[in-house]
């Protein structure tokens, strides 16, 4: 298991979800539960900033991991709390409320902590963004962390590395070669970074410190299982417990005293290196200016070691118990808004004192979701839910498991459905377009009414309709919560058309009948007849689309030309003709009162309509020409002979319209000889 590194070492963590114990190597975990022992911190080397003054507050607490940097130190206790001491405030100012921590890593300007949910917290001096954890990690589960001098590293459960902070010499430019590999360990130092992949390959990037880039190969028959990176040297631990070092300075030379011994953990400081042996003792070599390499005599029972700049920390004892059977988180229930989901930890041995829960939606923690049961809210719709269940037992390493994701959370509402039509009224034979969109529907939509069959949840359709009248198009969307129905009504009307209309020739008197004919309508098509804008008749065309209709000219019609229109079912299916309308007046008849026998009588008729036909009769006999009619002023004049008989005679004038007549009488007198007066 990896352990806490100084300057970029991962704080020990057996898996993404297990609290690290510190000085264990990446060897396989024990097959059965390990009983816990209380851990204490031992420090040696420089104490000029109080970095070796272990706080009294740690007395009696169960320390499970330590980490130190240049002038600052940290300890992680079994309750998930972090204690920091030394100089370098704000780097020693642990954020309030930080708990559930499973791993720590101390850096020069920035400290890191990893919690049981795989999320990273950074604090200290924000040099080039070193305390700003990248947003990309919010959706990932981090398994290991490494704090460097000016930059930071994180390793996620997919074996990918994220780097941030100061990018001096490309220290945060993760090499593309790692994209196709699975990284198992990371380390960071002063503007340098290093990663170990699952195939035992070590990749170095950043400042090309002399000798550091010349990574050696692992001894024959072994592979590298862990790494550590210092200022001038680097180390790797082999699968058989040997140490390989390279770089410059005395720290790059592994002491012969390690020959034949099994090393379980390594850590690199600024100028010195440390190794934890399988017998619980510590070896240290390299710089010893402040006594940092002078391991206290008789120090045994060490479970983790951390090398800083001029000082070293060791965790003595502190072996928390491990669960024989870890949690196996699972979720029961239907993933739907408003429907409870329940987390199960599975069977855990020995029995935990308690469990904690953290729910996630698509990998993002759901605020406040920390109980065994969670009811998805609308905000979680269309996300996959997971839960991390962590088992806790006094003096045991907390053990966590993340469930498999559920299916996407479904809505608790019936589907939404919107159906629109480009034009709700079209002409016969033309087309329009239906458009629809549905959300939350299960499967296809169902069409009915003017169409039928299955439709996609969104789409368009071109509708061409020849049947006149209204046609309703229905669409239904269904899910487990119900069915939503939408419909539109399409109105189909006839095409525009010019009708043939005739109202006859000649003059027409207001209030009299008029025969109107029309053709080119549809069979049984409704029509309306108007004279001078006044509706005078309605009906339907015959089976041939013809109309013959007698109508009455409204008495309110103005004299002159009046338009006679026939309109079909649509306003632009129309035709027209014109008639001349006149107003009936009393006829005036002027003639001589006395006319000699055999002379001529002059007749003048007024009050006629212009062009109106007129008949003049004398003593019942027609004396006006056939087709006689008034002039434009409505006047007609004629003469006729009165014959030889004398006495009272009658003249009758009849106009064509409404049978108007005027009658006058006059006297026919005897003709006298010249010079005589006749009575």
From TrEMBL:
Any single GO CC term annotated in Swiss-Prot or TrEMBL for this entry: cytoplasm
Per UniProt, the keywords (alphabetical) are:
Signal
In its keyword annotation, does this UniProt entry include Signal? yes
A Pfam family (short name) is RCC1_2
Q: Note whether Signal occurs among the keywords.
A: yes
Q: Which residues form the signal peptide?
A: 1-33
What molecular function does GO assign, one term?
A: guanyl-nucleotide exchange factor activity
Stored PROSITE patterns? RCC1_3
Protein name, as recorded? Alpha-tubulin suppressor-like RCC1 family protein
Species:
Nocardioides panacis
Q: What is the lineage of its organism?
A: Bacteria, Bacillati, Actinomycetota, Actinomycetes, Propionibacteriales
């Amino acid at each position: 298991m990896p352990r806490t590194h100084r300057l970029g070492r991962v704080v020990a963590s057996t898996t993404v979800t297990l609290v690290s114990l510190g000085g264990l190597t990446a060897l396989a975990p024990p097959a059965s539960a390990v009983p816990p022992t209380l851990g204490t911190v031992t420090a040696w080397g420089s104490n000029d900033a109080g970095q070796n003054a272990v706080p009294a507050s740690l007395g009696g607490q169960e320390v499970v991991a330590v980490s130190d940097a240049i002038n600052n130190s940290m300890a992680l206790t079994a309750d998930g709390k972090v204690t920091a001491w030394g100089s370098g405030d704000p780097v020693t100012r642990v954020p309030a409320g930080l708990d559930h921590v499973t791993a720590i890593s101390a850096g020069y300007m920035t400290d890191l902590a990893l919690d049981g949910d795989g999320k990273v917290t950074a604090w200290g001096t924000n040099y080039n963004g070193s305390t700003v954890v990248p947003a990309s990690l919010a959706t990932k589960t981090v398994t290991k962390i490494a704090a460097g001098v000016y930059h930071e590293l994180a390793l996620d459960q997919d074996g990918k590395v994220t780097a941030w902070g100061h990018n001096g010499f490309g220290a945060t430019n993760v090499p593309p070669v790692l994209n196709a590999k699975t990284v198992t360990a990371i380390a960071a130092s002063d503007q340098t970074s290093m990663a170990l992949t699952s195939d035992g390959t070590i990749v170095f990037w950043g400042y090309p410190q002399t000798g550091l880039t010349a990574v050696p190969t692992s001894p024959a028959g072994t592979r590298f299982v862990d790494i550590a990176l210092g200022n001038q040297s680097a180390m790797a631990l082999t699968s058989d417990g040997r140490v390989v070092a390279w770089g410059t300075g005395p720290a790059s030379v592994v002491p012969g005293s390690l020959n034949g011994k099994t090393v379980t953990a390594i850590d690199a400081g600024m100028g010195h290196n440390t190794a934890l042996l399988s017998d619980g003792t510590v070896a240290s070599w390299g710089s010893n200016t402040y006594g940092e390499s002078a391991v206290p005599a008789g120090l045994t029972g060490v479970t983790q070691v951390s090398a800083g700049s001029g000082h070293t920390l060791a965790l003595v004892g502190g072996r928390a118990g491990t669960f024989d059977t870890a949690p196996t988180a699972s979720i029961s229930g239907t993933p739907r808004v408003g429907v409870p989901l329940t987390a199960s930890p599975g069977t855990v041995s020995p029995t935990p004192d308690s469990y904690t829960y953290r729910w996630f939606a698509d990998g993002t923690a759901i605020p406040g979701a920390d109980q065994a049961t969670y009811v998805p809210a609308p905000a979680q719709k269309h996300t996959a839910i997971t839960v991390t269940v962590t088992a806790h037992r006094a003096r045991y390493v907390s053990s966590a498991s993340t469930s498999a994701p559920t299916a996407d959370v479904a809505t608790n509402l019936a589907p939404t459905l919107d159906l629109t039509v480009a034009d709700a009224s079209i002409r016969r034979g033309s087309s329009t377009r239906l458009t629809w969109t549905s959300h939350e529907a299960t499967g296809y939509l169902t069409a009915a009414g003017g169409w039928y069959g299955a439709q996609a949840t969104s789409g368009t359709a071109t509708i061409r309709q020849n049947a006149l009248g209204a046609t309703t198009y229905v669409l239904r969307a269904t899910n487990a919560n119900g069915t939503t129905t939408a419909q539109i009504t399409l109105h189909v009307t006839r095409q525009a058309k010019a009708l043939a209309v005739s109202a006859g020739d000649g003059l027409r008197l207001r209030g009299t009948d008029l025969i109107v004919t029309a053709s080119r309508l549809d069979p049984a098509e409704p029509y309306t007849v108007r004279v001078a804008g006044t509706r005078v008749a309605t009906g339907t065309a015959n089976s041939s689309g013809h109309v013959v209709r007698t109508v009455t000219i409204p008495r309110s019609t103005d004299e002159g030309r009046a338009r006679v229109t026939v309109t079909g079912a649509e306003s632009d299916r129309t035709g027209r003709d014109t008639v001349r309308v006149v107003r009936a007046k009393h006829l005036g008849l002027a003639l001589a009162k006395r006319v000699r026998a055999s002379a001529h009588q002059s007749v003048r008729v007024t009050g006629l309509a212009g062009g109106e036909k007129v008949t003049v009769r004398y003593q019942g006999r027609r004396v006006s020409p056939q087709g006689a009619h008034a002039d434009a002023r409505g006047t007609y004049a004629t003469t006729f002979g009165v014959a030889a008989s004398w006495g009272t005679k009658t003249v009758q004038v009849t106009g064509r319209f409404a049978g108007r007549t005027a009658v006058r009488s006059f006297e026919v007198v005897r003709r006298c000889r010249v010079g005589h007066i006749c009575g």
